[in-house]
């Protein structure tokens, strides 16, 4: 190799994560409902970035850029909310994560010979694509791969239709699950590829195939997902640059603020340079229009919609903009609890118990334009945001360590199974 190649490789390696110099992350632990609400207001006011949602006496993790750190800590102190530093050297933690993932990748290749879908490491976009193609090829009678549209940067946005009758039996309820609308939430796509596996390669609940049709979209935001692997670990939004005069400097829209339900009203921003920018208009993003169109296409038949996020060990339901309850609040809560109980059974000592409730009540902040509210608003009776478990207490990096990925997939599947069956019984 030529010397200049080595030198530029070296420079590139060192440039990674450099953008986070001076940033800090904090553990926060509100210990009462008032403190949780106060925490929510601080987040709103300073527009800091929640990596993991806290709950009562349960630590969350917040990422804060340098010029906001003083205001952040003094605001917490003024409300008496306890906090401690999580990382004062973000770059070191990210380098540690990279190293862990690389070691895991090598080990995983050695074990699986790059053939099987990895659940002992995070799943890159290309790997998920290849997996879905393979499933469609191997299970042509039940699995169809659909390219819904191309993302802003031109990547196919693809979902898997799973049905024993090619969606022709219109009496069957449909279950829709998406993940990866928030790019950095890497634990979410594997839970959906796991669902694909459990409905094709490794069927242990045949009633779920007999009773339901499935639409499974593991990576709703491929541009952002890719970008979070290659360039910026904490990237959350899409990568569009056509939303605002400033969008070339600050690309991207928060997909979970872009839906047309109380769009651009609470917990969202009209400044494209923030992480909760709701877009120039509702459904400005192809990545959210794809999900919207799926919901409308199958609407009268959808019994359950789940959208996967991280972290927090939470199952959240409407209404997420103002904390009021829907007409179906009892059903939402009952099925939410049923899902959580099944997950907790399998989770045991791994993670904290799931919290189930109205999104504003549980999170401490409202946010409008979210997909779970939109789906419920247009008539999906059971619609939930999952905040998957991870990133609290004792982890050394920002990832849930790769060895926990399979655990999360397995237990989340238990929640999906319980939710599906209940939704079918009530439909
Ligand atoms: N962490 C998720 C987000 O910020 C929570 C969404 C909850 N749902 C809601 N309708 N606000 O997008
Ligand atoms: Zn999210």
From TrEMBL:
<dbReference type="GO" id="GO:0006508">
    <property type="term" value="P:proteolysis"/>
</dbReference>
<keyword id="KW-0121">Carboxypeptidase</keyword>
<keyword id="KW-0862">Zinc</keyword>
<dbReference type="InterPro" id="IPR003146">
    <property type="entry name" value="M14A_act_pep"/>
</dbReference>
<dbReference type="InterPro" id="IPR036990">
    <property type="entry name" value="M14A-like_propep"/>
</dbReference>
<protein>
    <recommendedName>
        <fullName>Peptidase M14 domain-containing protein</fullName>
    </recommendedName>
</protein>
<dbReference type="GO" id="GO:0008270">
    <property type="term" value="F:zinc ion binding"/>
</dbReference>
<keyword id="KW-0645">Protease</keyword>
<feature type="active site" description="Proton donor/acceptor">
    <location>
        <position position="387"/>
    </location>
</feature>
<dbReference type="InterPro" id="IPR000834">
    <property type="entry name" value="Peptidase_M14"/>
</dbReference>
<dbReference type="Pfam" id="PF02244">
    <property type="entry name" value="Propep_M14"/>
</dbReference>
<keyword id="KW-0378">Hydrolase</keyword>
<comment type="similarity">
    <text>Belongs to the peptidase M14 family.</text>
</comment>
<dbReference type="GO" id="GO:0005615">
    <property type="term" value="C:extracellular space"/>
</dbReference>
<keyword id="KW-0479">Metal-binding</keyword>
<keyword id="KW-0732">Signal</keyword>
<feature type="domain" description="Peptidase M14">
    <location>
        <begin position="121"/>
        <end position="423"/>
    </location>
</feature>
<dbReference type="GO" id="GO:0004181">
    <property type="term" value="F:metallocarboxypeptidase activity"/>
</dbReference>
<dbReference type="Pfam" id="PF00246">
    <property type="entry name" value="Peptidase_M14"/>
</dbReference>
<keyword id="KW-1015">Disulfide bond</keyword>
<keyword id="KW-0482">Metalloprotease</keyword>
<feature type="signal peptide">
    <location>
        <begin position="1"/>
        <end position="15"/>
    </location>
</feature>
<dbReference type="InterPro" id="IPR057246">
    <property type="entry name" value="CARBOXYPEPT_ZN_1"/>
</dbReference>
